[in-house]
């Protein structure tokens, strides 16, 4: 009885192995085969940094966290990020098909550390990339330098123009005051001119020239007056 059962058991085991091999062969062509940026990415402060992870199949979602040497936990930057572009606090994640790029336009010290990627494609894979930010600040682009130089030039020019305008105003005001102080006393209002003898100007008040009132000309001790026509 044992002799009859042994061939049947052997056949079932052989069939199971064939199915397993076929399944393995079918899945072998759809493995994700993840590849991520190797080594340490080093950039100066303020420079652009980029890390990437790629797989053979399209991404379903990606989770990235940052682990710093001084901390034991991993700070999440992106959780289950889908296809497309996603941004968070200076990090920019671009996912297209089976390609994913993590871009930092202006890298600083707090963005240094080990980045752990959870890659969801045909399978779940884990990748690790490392960023090191150090050294002097990266030179700024020429257009930014130019705009700052323009501001440094424009502000003093505005201040100088303001001072010149203020000085001209004060000078004109002082000059006008000096002109007024040089006008003869006879041009100002004279209160009650009274003199013996018949004269059209013997009483009343006479005002300065140029205001439509009687004009006065002084000849020694006498005054003559007439109305403008």
Automatic annotation (TrEMBL):
Transmembrane segment boundaries: 151-172
Presence of the UniProt keyword Transmembrane in the record: yes
Database matches in InterPro entries: SECTM1
Entry keyword set: Membrane, Signal, Transmembrane, Transmembrane helix
Protein name as catalogued: CD7 molecule
Species this protein is from: Equus caballus
Lineage: Eukaryota, Metazoa, Chordata, Craniata, Vertebrata
Superkingdom in the source lineage: Eukaryota
Gene: CD7
Signal peptide: 1-25
Gene Ontology BP, a term: immune response
UniProt GO molecular function: cytokine activity
